[in-house]
Specification:
The protein contains 14 helices and nine strands. By secondary structure, the chain is of the alpha/beta class. Strands 1-2-3-4-5-6-7-9 form an eight-stranded parallel β-barrel, surrounded by eight helices.
Length: about 375
């Protein structure tokens, strides 16, 4: 199979070192609503499509007031109604939180809504704290879900392809919309099915993605120290498959561009304060830059922020471009997926526009 036919390998535009994409956390700032955040997501998706970004992913998170992306499939359906070309997908759906059949049905429905432009990215982390994960899964045996991830993945793949072997307990169960519709009298089914991606922040999913011949997405934006080892492991483990004949890896990158360097620093500090609160069990809305500037950070908080912000590429458009170019060269990533974290949606939207201009991406 030609990987470009399923949108796995993106096209590089302008002077960008590799294809550029968007990861949207649907962040909610103090004084803003989830409705505001979702409207911003639509505007960013439309901009990304018009300017040649390859794909637009949303990530599953739970019980976080400042992140309104608990239901990726619902958000993607909304974005599909407002776009026509850009690939849409999950970065990702946390598979242990859900029955594989449910995911197959949701993404089969998305594929029917937006034929040939849906990605299904999967992770094995809960996307939240342990108590929330237990509420989601109706069990406190959380390790079981992560340990069973390869089996869950295999089951999901069977549902997507509708090819359980004869005698399997699920052999007469079909994910609809899906391939079974083409075998019904008079049935005609789309030739597309969402390509699977594995997501990770360590070596487990890197090795599994390589072994299965799947594309791999690494969370560089919160696990930068593991990026190169994980990508090396993915490439070393890779075995060609019907989907891919060679490895393909993207990395998620925190990147924020503003016209003024000081403004970028102010916005990044607000996002960092939000992370401090999340990591210390006090998740909330993304604070304003003014609140962050007035906050009296402890020594431990400053150490965390310095470490966190060291992996956030921010500044003027040319400064961010240099940082992204260097990162692409150091990691050998096949694609950069940019996530702009800031208090206000207008700042995030403008960042993607400034970088599109900086790289000379096409205009609609």
């Amino acid at each position: 199979m030609d990987p470009t036919s399923d949108g796995i390998r993106g096209e590089r535009h302008g002077s960008a070192p590799v294809p550029l994409s968007v990861l949207d956390l649907v962040t909610v700032g103090a004084g803003r609503t989830a409705t505001d955040a979702l409207r911003t997501s639509v505007e960013i998706a439309k901009l990304a499509e018009a300017r040649g970004y390859h794909r637009y992913w949303v990530a599953e998170h739970h019980s976080m007031p400042g992140v309104a992306s608990s239901s990726p499939a619902v958000i993607l359906a909304h974005l599909a109604a407002h776009t026509g070309r850009i690939r849409l997908g999950s970065g990702g759906v946390m598979l242990p939180n859900h029955a594989p059949l449910v995911i197959a049905e949701q993404f089969g429905t998305l594929e029917a809504m937006a034929p040939g432009r849906v990605d299904l990215g999967l992770g094995r982390a809960p996307g939240t704290d342990g108590a929330t994960a237990a509420a989601l899964r109706r069990t406190d045996r959380l390790n079981e879900g992560a340990d069973d991830f390869p089996q869950q993945l295999a089951e999901l793949t069977r549902f997507l392809d509708d090819d359980f072997p004869d005698g399997h307990p699920y052999g007469r169960i079909h994910a609809v919309p899906g391939p079974v519709q083409s075998t019904s009298p008079g049935g005609v089914q789309s030739p597309h099915r969402p390509p699977l991606w594995l997501l990770g922040s360590s070596g487990f999913s890197a090795r599994l993605a390589g072994t299965l011949g799947l594309p791999f997405a690494f969370a560089h934006h919160f696990s930068a120290q593991n990026t190169i080892p994980a990508l090396d492991l993915y490439r070393e483990s890779f075995r060609p498959s019907a989907l891919l004949d060679a490895p393909y890896a993207l990395i998620g990158v925190s990147a924020l561009a503003t016209e003024d360097e000081n403004e970028a620093r102010r916005q990044v500090m607000a996002a960092a304060l939000n992370m401090v609160r999340l990591r210390t069990g006090r998740p909330g809305l993304v604070p304003t830059p003014e609140e962050a500037a007035a906050h009296e950070f402890t020594e431990m908080e400053r150490e965390f922020i310095n470490s966190w912000n060291a992996n956030v590429i921010h500044g003027t458009p040319d400064q961010v471009r240099m940082g992204l170019d260097d990162l692409a060269k150091r990691t050998g990533a096949d694609e950069l997926m940019l996530t702009a974290n800031a208090h206000g949606g207008e700042i995030r939207l403008r960042s993607y526009e400034l970088l599109a201009n900086e790289y000379g991406l096409p205009s609609a």
